[in-house]
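== Folding the chain ==

***
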Amino acid sequence: MQSPALPRPRFERINLGSLITPIAFLLAIFLFWLLSPGHRFLDPRNLAAMAKLTPDLGVVALGVGILMICGEFDLSVASVLPLTSYIFAQLLIAGVNPFLGFLIVLPCGALLCLLNGVIVVRTGLPSFIVTLSTMMFWRGFLYVESGLMPISTLRYVPPSSPLAQMLTGQIGPVPVQFVWYVILAIVLGIMLHLSKFGNWIYATGSNVDAARAMGVRVPFTKMTCFAILGALCAFAAVMQSARLGQFAATQGIGFDLRAIAAVVVGGVSLRGGVGNMVGIALGVFIIQIIDNGLILMQVPVYGINTFIGIAVIIFVLVNNAVNRQFSGQ
């Protein structure tokens, strides 16, 4: 007897719920333009600065969003990112070509997060606990191994080098890292919404038992989503190192929770099975807009997370209210 066929992957139906994130994105831009001193929020220099900084978190958040749609979490990104940056720095010191080092680091990141996926799938432990543990393990390992000392990469990857230009250069007024962010969002969006594997991700996140009954390879799907996230962490690590000109053990600190916040603001359900790539990409920008706008308004840096936390709670409440309204129709 054949398993029931999965429906074709498709974009979510357009309704008020799916419009919350775009509306919030435009509203945030308008509010901070209105409230920032001298309306500096839309100053080209400020927009350029945001375009350079947003992809650091954004590239990671794309993978976090896909994994959350699949029904899992990964808190270890805050350690995988600096660890892969450290591996890249050590490869450069060993005389490895920067491009080859970049290509080596990507699968290293994928393997680090794949390990999380293997543990989750094989043991049945909650991914939150597993990745919290590996985050602490890798962070401790990195701190001991690096001695918390920064490592300059400018000697090997100066701003004028081909790799630095490829990852952090300029295309006219547009930073290259922003272009990479858009490209990755499009590629991952096509995978998520227009492929069989994307349909497996939604099915796994919605109902694991039903997904298995329909022939979905649930362990493979989960482990692949973990690996994709790891590769994206490594990509962001090299991109950030090229921009900063150094490895720092504190790279990526806070990215775990900020990425989850951005994804939730982007409309991804904490229970899995709900979300889309457009919402995830815009959710990252909303977090960055709030961050940048509050700085322009001279809010103390250490108080910004307070407002981001409030924003996340509001988004969750609004999304839940709208979803309940639509489910009742």
User: Anything to note?
Assistant: The longest strand covers residues 151-152. The beta strands are 151-152, 170-171, 174-175, 246-247.
